[in-house]
């Protein structure tokens, strides 16, 4: 069990210097999610225009893995279409399963591959991605 | 002696992530000694049968073992009679049974149910639900700044309208021992009944339900060296007799007609279906095990370990301790600077140390403490000062690790 596999420099950097932290005043879809087992919380906001994520922000309270994952996810999803975002969610799930997945669109995410060796922490890493999935579902449902 | 005790727990003889296991999560569930594991195996290998129905030899053995366990429980907590010992799935089910059967039948609009903000969700949500269903008011006793319960506050909160007071004997977060005997006296003076959540007390101290004068007392087997899936609801006979069962069928039946039926007498009235027979056997073995060591010895040992741990942890820079400084039981909740409890637990686990990180099923208490979650180290009869030393040095490493990483 190598702690450095989990707590990579990139992860700690996102934890200490979060990207996209904050709240939009208006014009965003918001989803609040929590991890009931540990109390970690995230509130994710996306501004979507013509099926493209124009901007993303989050607030939350949680461990280094859940918060850095949120920081990376919001950075990665900006400028992506909803379909591209869905593809990222699928790739992230594979990453958590220990598969060799590339994130050429935002390489930092690959640093989370070590979480796979710490099964108890996978829920932390996927919290913000589950929130993203809910935002997309809501956005697409509203368009129906 | 402690070495002899440790040797009886097979699970403690292993390495986790290359280090000897230090198990500091007994408040979540305790480890099981060899005698309990053997009792479960013996039951299934030799005696397995349903209870109270077979006229064959195995049926008698299983029935004797099951009812024998009930007698052990009755003696263990000094109940007046085995009729007052209901086997349930655990503390949560026991408290829910009181809420569903007793409380829902007696509570009306204007009545009050009194609890504290330190209650485990199991002793909070059932009362929330009763309040919603009956129109009764849920009232909270204000905690002291250190997290303890002051009797003056209890006097202020309990009134003539109070029907039920329900409080944890020992907090699963702060290790506070609540004065439940005195609180029961206040409750009774106002005509209310006293319910005690004994999940964190029964494994660690001598419990005497008659002396405490509690009307209901709930606890679980798995926190006191017994198997999971079985627990106890003690209730005063007169109260239990007046209550209706909440589960129907199987073992609780007396006579069934097409449109009406009758129930067995206590305690079987509340034990629908095939009961948790092996669980009861395992709980009986756990009671024998704990009684042989002596609850007074266990209590003293834990107090010593906790005092040692409090001293060592308070010397550690950056550690915030929650709850009263003086520990009556072996349970310590803390945070380590800015490092999130989840991250602390992962680094400790890498050193073979098992602690709990989270809200401990006490979200209202977390809000009261103004934190999202904490780290909890909880001790039992098999923990040593060496375990605490290992914890402290791993915490120092955690601080260094996250210090470097930032």
Automatic annotation (TrEMBL), chain A:
<dbReference type="InterPro" id="IPR002871">
    <property type="entry name" value="NIF_FeS_clus_asmbl_NifU_N"/>
</dbReference>
<feature type="domain" description="NIF system FeS cluster assembly NifU N-terminal">
    <location>
        <begin position="7"/>
        <end position="124"/>
    </location>
</feature>
<dbReference type="GO" id="GO:0005506">
    <property type="term" value="F:iron ion binding"/>
</dbReference>
<dbReference type="GO" id="GO:0016226">
    <property type="term" value="P:iron-sulfur cluster assembly"/>
</dbReference>
<comment type="similarity">
    <text>Belongs to the NifU family.</text>
</comment>
<dbReference type="GO" id="GO:0051536">
    <property type="term" value="F:iron-sulfur cluster binding"/>
</dbReference>
<protein>
    <submittedName>
        <fullName>Iron-sulfur cluster assembly scaffold protein NifU</fullName>
    </submittedName>
</protein>
<dbReference type="Pfam" id="PF01592">
    <property type="entry name" value="NifU_N"/>
</dbReference>
UniProtKB/TrEMBL annotation, chain B:
<dbReference type="InterPro" id="IPR015424">
    <property type="entry name" value="PyrdxlP-dep_Trfase"/>
</dbReference>
<dbReference type="InterPro" id="IPR016454">
    <property type="entry name" value="Cysteine_dSase"/>
</dbReference>
<comment type="similarity">
    <text>Belongs to the class-V pyridoxal-phosphate-dependent aminotransferase family. Csd subfamily.</text>
</comment>
<dbReference type="GO" id="GO:0031071">
    <property type="term" value="F:cysteine desulfurase activity"/>
</dbReference>
<dbReference type="InterPro" id="IPR010970">
    <property type="entry name" value="Cys_dSase_SufS"/>
</dbReference>
<dbReference type="InterPro" id="IPR015422">
    <property type="entry name" value="PyrdxlP-dep_Trfase_small"/>
</dbReference>
<keyword id="KW-0663">Pyridoxal phosphate</keyword>
<dbReference type="Pfam" id="PF00266">
    <property type="entry name" value="Aminotran_5"/>
</dbReference>
<keyword id="KW-0808">Transferase</keyword>
<feature type="domain" description="Aminotransferase class V">
    <location>
        <begin position="22"/>
        <end position="391"/>
    </location>
</feature>
<dbReference type="GO" id="GO:0006534">
    <property type="term" value="P:cysteine metabolic process"/>
</dbReference>
<protein>
    <recommendedName>
        <fullName>cysteine desulfurase</fullName>
        <ecNumber>2.8.1.7</ecNumber>
    </recommendedName>
</protein>
<dbReference type="InterPro" id="IPR000192">
    <property type="entry name" value="Aminotrans_V_dom"/>
</dbReference>
<dbReference type="InterPro" id="IPR015421">
    <property type="entry name" value="PyrdxlP-dep_Trfase_major"/>
</dbReference>
<dbReference type="GO" id="GO:0030170">
    <property type="term" value="F:pyridoxal phosphate binding"/>
</dbReference>
